[in-house]
Each structure stands twice: as C-alpha cells, then as structure tokens.
C-alpha cells in the first residue's frame, strides 16, 4: 500500500462534497509529475484530502477505488484520473503551519514541492499525521 496527498480548493470541491458524493473521480490534474503520481496509485492506496489555498489543512482521508484511466475532462488521453472514496475525516484537521513546525515532517513532499497537487506521503508521515489528526476511519 502507498500513501498520497491530493489537494483541492474547498471553494471548487470540498471534503463535505467528497463525503456526500462518496466516490468521486479525481479529475483536472494538468501537471506531469502529479499525473505520474495519479498513474502510480493502486486500488486501496490511501490519500490525505487537503484543502488548499484558503484553508491549507488536511481534513480527511480517501481510498483509491479505481486505478488510473483517461480523464474525461481532458482532450488528451495522456491525462488520467482515479476514483476515490471518502474514508473518514480528521477530527482535528492538521494545518500547513503544524506540518511546517513538526520536525518529523520536515522532508514531506508537501513542503518540498508545495505547488504539486498530487504528492507521495511516506508510511511514517501518514501514521504520524493520522495520529495527530485523530483520523476516524470510515
């Protein structure tokens, strides 16, 4: 199993919408490295759902339920998406400021490549963040 972080502006698509929709295609990624990360995702991988821009915090966890396929919002079949399913909220969302201040997370891809919308997360980072965030698995 691998771990990831996917970003969404809450004004465009929020955690509450993900929960309401249950399963959602993660479309619209137009960065090559982020696309390659989507393509590397496997069924049952877990990803943090990160509210970017206005909130800058991890608010939940999703599970990959369908591996990469051509993104229906793109004209080019090289762009891919995956389907993700809500897998529980963090009872204490973890802010970017908390992540930056935590020595255990200083190498996190979110900090090293802050503009990347789909990024890998190590197992240690995932366990640490779910513990401090109080993840309630669905």
Topology, please?
Elements: E1 3-8, H1 15-21, E2 23-26, H2 32-40, E3 46-51, E4 57-70, E5 80-95, H3 96-101, H4 109-112, E6 118-121, H5 123-133
Parallel strand pairs: 1-3
Antiparallel strand pairs: 1-6, 2-5, 3-4, 4-5
How would you portray this structure in words?
- The chain is α+β, with helices and mostly antiparallel strands.
- The chain contains five helices and six strands; from the N terminus they run βαβαβββααβα.
- Strand 3 and strand 4 form a beta hairpin.
- The mean pLDDT is 97.
Question: Quick recap of the structure?
Answer:
The chain has 138 residues and is of the alpha+beta class. The chain contains 5 helices and 6 strands; from the N terminus they run βαβαβββααβα.
